[in-house]
Design a protein that fits this description.
Layout lengths: L4 E7 L4 E7 L4 E9 L7 E6 L8 E4 L5 H14 L9 E8 L10 E2 L2 H9 L8 H14 L5 E5 L9 H4 L5 H6 L9 H15 L7 E7 L3 E7 L2 E5 L21 H8 L5 H10 L2 H6 L4 H9 L3 H25 L4 E5 H6 L1 H8 L11 H5 L6 E2 L8 E4 L4 H13 L2
Parallel strand pairs: 1-6, 6-8, 9-12, 12-14
Antiparallel strand pairs: 1-2, 2-3, 3-4, 4-5, 7-8, 9-10, 10-11, 13-14
Helix pairs in contact: 1-3, 6-15, 10-11, 11-13
Length: about 400
């Protein structure tokens, strides 16, 4: 029996999302989520997508830690005949947010690699610790199975040095690993390739601007399948206006808040990451609610939406200049895939860049990748549902079967 299954784990600080995929036909066998780990109100939702078991199952009650969570996941999979001891399981693929400059490809995890991921925690203090915990527990549950780390930053490691470098003292930058890393890399990689496929062209021949718009949001300029620029930087704070993050900001705002406002570093960090963006401007970080309120004439929501769209336009224009020739602009993630008003507003007035929408196609809902540009438009506009789990599984499986 050929091992063709990959379990994908995305371990957060208090949650574990997982999917089991069969790479023989790229199908999903099971999906699930453990949330509120460490609380009395922990919840596990498991859904087998194949076989006689069928139906979504839910467990409520305390799950003490990530080890207990992954053991519960393993038990649910085993109940469907797809346990961690299955000979059909080829690997576990782990989403790891930050790979620094060392990890630019998917990597089989050993003790040395795990130590390096721990060393990167200062660059991603909210994410890498949970990623490390998930890896440690998975390794303890199935020590003989290849564990593969797939890094959010890896796809962006191809940016030229003059793009990745900030214009600060070089010795200081090197001492503290300060540079643009970029994030959402698995999504940008998947969507850029899927867009080329949608156009019926080899990925090497396609230049695409990818707009990953969720609560976190980022843009990338991808030339022939290779990232040459992205909006997020040292951290996921830089770039677009997001749900709770400010995006681009004059660095002196931080000094002003400290000197004049008396805010601590931690307070400023919380302000810019958790209390800014759409939430900071109008009190809502859900784009559906922002659109509803703006439609009813709410001034704060209208201003927040206008700021969100304006930043998008700036990046589309900038990345058009960076690429020189743009074949497609691709919208993805929760807002990008579902908010047709965002797509329409972001591209309004960009006819000189070759961008024009078919308004009827743009307003139609569909779970499938599709083109929503006008027939006469020089640049295609695509809506491509992202699939980060499939991308992680694909990269992990390719590595362990080499």
């Amino acid at each position: 029996m050929t091992a063709s299954r990959v379990l994908v784990l995305n371990s957060g600080s208090s949650s574990v999302k997982y999917q089991l995929l069969d790479m023989a036909d790229r199908s999903r066998l099971a999906v699930g989520l453990v949330e509120r780990i460490g609380e009395e109100t922990s919840r596990l939702v498991h859904e087998p997508l194949t076989g006689p078991a069928g139906g979504k199952r839910e467990q409520l009650g305390p799950i003490a830690d990530h080890e207990a969570a992954l053991k519960a996941v393993a038990a649910e999979l085993a109940a469907d005949g797809m346990g961690l001891d299955s000979p059909e399981l080829a690997a576990v693929g782990h989403r790891v947010v930050h790979g620094g400059t060392r990890f630019t490809q998917p990597t089989v995890i050993d003790d040395e690699v795990l130590a390096e991921i721990r060393n990167l925690i200062p660059l991603a203090p909210l994410h890498n610790p949970a990623n490390v915990t998930g890896i440690e527990v998975a390794r303890s549950l199935r020590a003989d199975l290849p564990q593969v780390a797939v890094f959010d930053t890896a796809f962006h490691s191809t940016m030229p040095e003059y793009v990745a470098r900030y214009a600060i003292d070089a010795a200081t930058a090197d001492a503290y690993s300060i540079r643009r890393y970029g994030f959402h890399g698995t999504s940008h990689a998947y969507v850029s390739r899927a867009t080329a496929a949608l156009l019926g062209r080899p990925v090497e021949d396609v230049n695409v601007i990818v707009l990953h718009l969720g609560n976190g949001a980022s843009a990338s300029a991808v030339r022939g399948g290779v990232c040459v620029e992205t909006s997020m930087g040292l951290t996921p704070l830089e770039g677009l206006v997001m749900g709770t993050r400010s995006g681009d900001l004059d660095p002196a705002v931080v000094f002003h808040l400290a000197r004049v406002g008396g805010l601590s570093v931690d307070e400023i960090d919380s302000l810019l990451n958790k209390k800014s963006g759409l939430l900071g401007m109008c009190g809502d970080n859900d784009m559906r609610e922002v659109l509803r309120r703006a439609g009813e004439g709410d001034e704060a929501a209208s201003l927040a939406f206008a700021a969100y769209v304006h930043r998008l336009k700036k990046y589309i224009g900038a990345y058009s200049a960076v690429l020189g020739r743009v074949d497609a602009v691709a919208f993805t993630a929760g807002v990008g895939e579902n908010a047709h008003q965002v797509r329409e507003a972001a591209l309004d007035g960009l006819a000189e860049l070759g961008l024009a929408l078919d308004l009827q196609a743009n307003a139609a809902r569909s779970p499938e990748p599709r083109l929503v540009s006008a027939e006469y438009a020089r640049v295609a506009v695509a809506v491509v549902p992202t699939d980060e789990e499939l991308e992680i599984a694909t990269q992990a499986y390719a590595l362990v079967t080499q």
